[in-house]
Design goal:
Two copies of one chain form a homodimer. With 310 residues, chain A is of the alpha+beta class. Chain A contains six helices and 17 strands. The longest helix of chain A has 14 residues. Chain A starts with a helix and ends in a 6-residue tail after the last strand.
């Protein structure tokens, strides 16, 4: 096995468990996730667009986030603008609620005098909870059904739900999804407070908060932060917070220090085969394959870009 | 709305644990989870049975686990026996895989010479993946549907799925559930390696591994353990593991040092009202209540026993 193939296998072992370790044992069983990824073509993958990639730099390392302007154009533009004016630099992770979310923002955000000033970006924006369906917007449906929405699937590499009658489509609160916290008013968010899902998908938040991206690397940095002991998992003492060193748009970072990743396209036969392999686990270990898969259990594989390897 | 009120409202909307204390502030909004719990009767709650309660003692504190013999009688009896002969004491948390499971057991378990010896308990047991339905076994159904099983609901305070045609019922891999790790053979588990779900419910494991309990306190101790960097989240170096100080049956611990908890009964009108309140969120913050709820998003409230309070 060459280094490239090995990295692929390792990448999915690290993220998604049993399959890789069992690959050697299951050579006779065709179409496991391991085999599908190993057989994927370069064109099955898309590099992250540096304009739509955020680096959240924490003391423990870098969290890489992909933004999705097709679903939240104003929020994505505003978070980009906030990052570019250094809004987040020196702020903190304020909240870590078990089985729910981690959230970062301004510890003094409620104090008009002490709060971090905003230069060109917006403090609040109209909600972008959902959007109209469109022939231009790809939708790869999942036939397995869903408890919360009439239809679910994937669009541009993100988990989504859709209501065909209302012709609306929206991002869903799966593990790792990035949202813009808000107060009581629907239009009180905007991106100054951002959260990431670290537990069982809180799908009741769908269409109640604007989602705008997904963590594609570094989830373990967020998910292992000590939980806050205050209400909603807020830290009770300032020293419990984790400092945000900076949030940068990848395009603004020198190429040599970028994290070069690519994501499996969700509008490809390879992705459909992968979903099927996860729905009907063919690894020898499984005794009762379910034949079904929940939207938020479908992996959207990410790997180091081949071009970036020596 | 001032900051204090806002935080309070947000807290009870978003948290599973803080509802009761916020009841006073939400008097205007009928039938929220906070109000339902505040109005619950003592008989809506059941104390943990000390014979069916395990204390996993880690350096960061105690994890309290409720065992459920009705679904895995042999595994529960064996884990109790293992705990009573001190099998787990001094072993380690070996694995922490992001969005999946934490697992503890014997680092030398694969080495017949070095592995921890077992005195009276069993090393392996026949699988207890599911069991027959029975009129004696309560089932509180959830009408919201499920991606994986024909029916889902609750039994004896645990999330379950049911196949009425096959007349089988089984525990489901929701957040916090405890399972008995196994090797390739279905009957190779037994309780010497135990895992807890720390991510989005891996329901594809249902009926593939024996579940036998649920963490009712201390999940944050397990969920924040640093992730292992080896395959499947195993730690690569011995020093990365977390030592297991001991695992004890609560009945064997002096009463003064027990953790006195009670769990909301899932076969009560109070629990049904709570499910409805979570399905149709009535808190002002919610703009688009979903009207649906996923099995693993239903909270099963746990609180300190009133009798134990001063």
């Amino acid at each position: 096995m060459n280094r490239h193939a090995l990295l692929l296998v390792l990448a999915f072992m690290l993220s998604w468990g049993f399959a890789a370790q069992l690959q050697a044992q299951s050579a006779a069983a065709p179409k496991t996730m391991a085999e599908i990824l190993a057989a994927s073509k370069p064109s099955d993958w898309r590099p992250l667009d540096p304009e739509n990639t955020l680096y959240l730099e924490l003391p423990a390392g870098r969290v890489v986030i992909e933004l999705v302007p097709a679903f939240a154009p104003k929020h994505v533009a505003n978070v980009r603008a906030l990052a570019r004016e250094g809004y987040f630099d020196g702020l903190s992770v304020l909240r870590s609620q078990d089985n729910y979310v981690v959230q970062w923002g301004d510890p003094d955000g409620e104090d008009p005098e002490k709060q971090r000033k905003i230069k060109k970006a917006q403090r609040t924006l109209p909600a972008e909870f959902d959007r109209a369906t469109s022939p231009d917007l790809p939708f790869t449906g999942l036939a397995d059904g869903d408890v919360y929405a009439p239809e679910v699937g994937f669009s541009q590499g993100f988990p989504v739900a859709r209501d065909p009658k209302a012709r609306r489509i929206w991002l869903t609160h799966c593990y790792g999804m990035l949202g813009a916290g808000r107060d009581m008013d629907a239009d009180s968010g905007g991106g100054t407070e951002l959260y990431v899902v670290i537990g069982h998908a809180p799908r009741h938040l769908d269409r109640n908060v604007t989602l705008l991206g997904r963590v594609v690397q570094g989830m373990e940095i967020l998910s292992t932060l000590g939980r806050g002991t205050g209400g909603m998992g807020f830290y009770e003492k300032a020293e419990e917070r984790t400092p945000v060193k900076s949030v940068r748009v990848a395009a603004d970072v020198p190429e040599a220090t970028r994290t070069s990743l690519e994501v499996l396209r969700t509008d490809t036969p390879t992705f459909l085969a992968l979903v099927d392999a996860r729905r009907n686990r063919r690894e020898e270990w499984f005794k009762s394959p379910t034949g079904h898969i929940d939207l938020c259990n479908v992996p959207i594989p990410v790997r180091a870009r081949a071009a970036a390897l020596p």
